[in-house]
Design brief:
Helix content is 41%, strand content 17%. With 585 residues, the protein is an alpha/beta fold. The strands form 4 sheets. An 8-stranded mixed sheet has the order 5-6-7-2-8-9-1-10. A 7-stranded mixed sheet has the order 11-17-14-13-12-15-16. It has a two-stranded antiparallel sheet with strand order 3-4. Helix 7 runs antiparallel to helix 8 (252-281). The N and C termini lie far apart (91 Å).
Length: 585
């Protein structure tokens, strides 16, 4: 009886709050493990924030994990958005869902006096959220195994699931879901998972590990949960409505009758609530929804704007929730995310000192493989959409580390790129040297080549205005053909020859580069191998970073500039002869 009364006491008033059909369905079902694959602006964050609050209040004093691929994303974006969500006024009375400092705190070493004490010590207060009942949420990152080592968590929250590695979650985070007091084990949230994401684009290298849970749903059990859950919610509503009526009722006989109705509803609630908890505890629910589930709130103009500004593939994935297949015949054919893309590109010594209450700005000082004493090597692809990739050579490790990507589009030009590079790499550099490689592809006309050279010189001038010393490497370089790029990339990415350097790309700071590599198909023209760059003319400029061949082209120029001399001479000669023959015919 006391458990039921405690629950009803949480809801002093009934307010009108809009929920779309996806949010309502997810709240009604509310199983142990719940994953939402939903389109952009479908209302995922609204549901996620409330679910996180419900889990915390159902398991007081316990520890949960809030995970993402990196700490960087958590501290700079995801947690601040969650705090804003809790603090935003809502409902008829325009009150926040939770009040910071009263109902929850973030980054606090000393908890308010009215807070219950967490069961486990808070090892890193700077990166923790604590609710007033002592439930403690620890930030964990799959690129940092020690962030979860030795911990005993009772629930795992994961936003943007597609950016996480399913293998790392299975080996690093999920084993830490264990422990808990007897009271905690009675919660249907115990050892559960809460996740949300839009559809993973495997053609961009995103991980669709979470889709396997879709096959684990017992639909018969879910239908039964819906039936019982609606009954429980109806009883809670009846209890609260009767209590409110009783407060204003002056007729004693009617008040007594209301007491009997309240008692009857509470008895029914005591019967059904344990049954519902047991059903939910053993259930998995996976919900897929498009952005159209929120059409009444967004309005049709939102979708009109999206379809006009996105490519069809991006619209189908981000808005429609339709899964896109992978491109098979890639120009970077030997590229493997598990080998060439690395998510360990941050050093966390400084980040661990950062407090969630402060404003965070990412610069090169947080990059694990960056050396202030070594020169920067840049690949540059100019045009209406301009892109730069920045790397450093590591001779001892025989590696090329691609550290960072930059881009802008018309009307922004070289001055904007130079500013971005300086803002990220300018501070505390002991070596001001930059080595710059740009396009020398064989498909460019003479006028285009002259324009590209001019663009490179302008970028050189803009960078030098910030104090860099720029060496423009390939002004007098001969024309390089796609066949040569393709053969060199194939050799390097295969990693079969010990004397050739290994290419490693920081996936956290070069996400669009990796996406661009996956979306760079081969085009064969009269038997010649070329890169299909049609995406650079068909995709709007503002979306070309991830969805076109622009940034991967910048990386291609960089790699050939550094290692083109490693190609066998026969390949260079055959490429040149092939070009002459094509010109003759």
């Amino acid at each position: 009886m006391s458990d039921i009364l405690d629950i009803s006491e949480k809801y002093k008033e009934i307010e009108r709050i809009y929920n779309n059909s996806m949010q309502i369905l997810a709240s009604v079902i509310d199983t142990n493990t719940m994953l939402l694959e939903a389109g952009r602006a479908a209302g995922k964050t609204e549901w996620f924030g409330k679910r996180m609050m419900n889990v915390a209040y159902d398991m007081p004093g316990e520890l949960s994990f809030f995970g993402h691929k990196t700490y960087m994303a958590l501290v700079s974006n995801i947690v601040p958005n969650l705090i804003t969500f809790y603090n935003t006024p809502r409902g008829d009375n325009q009150r926040p869902l939770l009040r910071q400092g009263i109902d929850f705190v973030v980054g606090e070493k000393d908890l308010p006096s009215h807070f219950a004490k967490p069961r486990f010590p808070i090892l890193n207060p700077n990166h923790s959220m604590v609710y007033s009942n002592g439930h403690h949420v620890r930030l964990v990152a799959t690129d940092q195994q020690e962030s979860v080592a030795g911990a005993n968590g009772v629930h795992f929250f994961n936003e943007e699931m597609k950016h996480n590695s399913g293998e790392k979650l299975a080996s690093r985070v999920f084993p830490a879901l264990r422990g808990g007091m007897a009271q905690t084990r009675a919660s249907h949230y115990y050892l559960g998972i809460t996740g949300l994401s839009d559809s993973a684009r495997v053609d961009l290298g995103e991980d669709n590990w979470f889709e396997k849970y879709e096959k684990q749903v017992d639909h018969k059990l879910i239908r039964e949960i819906v039936t019982v859950s609606l009954q429980v919610n109806r009883l809670l509503y009846n209890i609260e409505t009767l209590k409110n009526k009783k407060l204003v009722e002056k007729d004693l006989s009617k008040r007594v009758a209301m007491d009997k109705q309240i008692a009857s509803n509470i008895r029914k609630l005591m019967k059904w609530k344990p049954i519902l908890r047991h059903m939910r505890s053993s259930a998995v629910f996976y919900l897929r929804a498009s952005s159209f589930v929120n059409k009444d709130f967004l309005g049709l103009s939102y979708f009109k704007t999206q379809i006009e500004s996105l490519t069809m593939e991006e619209f189908l994935s981000a808005i429609g929730g339709i899964r896109v297949t992978r491109i098979v015949d890639m120009f970077f054919g030997g590229f493997d995310d598990k080998v060439h893309a690395c998510d360990d590109d941050y050093t966390y010594k400084s980040i661990h000192d950062f407090n969630l209450k402060d404003t965070f700005r990412l610069t090169s000082e947080y990059l694990k493989y960056y050396n202030t004493k070594d020169p920067l090597v840049l690949g540059y692809d100019p045009g209406h959409f301009s892109s730069v990739v920045v790397a450093q050579e590591k001779p001892r490790q025989n590696e090329l580390r691609i550290l960072k990507e930059f881009f802008c589009w018309h009307p922004l030009q070289q001055d904007e790129l130079a500013k971005q590079i300086f803002m990220f790499f300018g501070a505390n550099r002991q070596n001001k040297k930059i080595i710059l490689y740009h396009d020398r592809a064989g498909n460019k006309k003479k006028g285009d080549q002259e324009r590209i050279t001019t663009d490179a010189r302008i970028l050189k001038r803009e960078l030098e205005s910030y104090g860099f010393n720029v060496e423009l490497k390939n002004e007098k370089q001969r024309t390089i053909f796609y066949y040569e790029h393709y053969k060199l990339l194939t050799m390097l990415l295969a990693e079969k020859m010990r004397h050739l350097p290994r290419i490693r790309i920081g996936s956290n700071e070069c996400p669009n580069l990796i996406s661009s590599i996956h979306l760079s198909p081969i085009k064969r023209t009269d038997g010649r191998i070329e890169m299909d760059k049609s995406s650079e003319t068909t995709i709007p400029l503002q979306h070309q970073a991830a969805l076109s061949t622009q940034i991967s082209s910048a990386a291609m120029y960089l790699i050939y500039g550094l290692y083109g001399n490693r190609l066998p001479k026969e390949i260079n000669r055959s490429a040149g002869m092939g070009h002459i023959e094509n010109m003759v015919t």
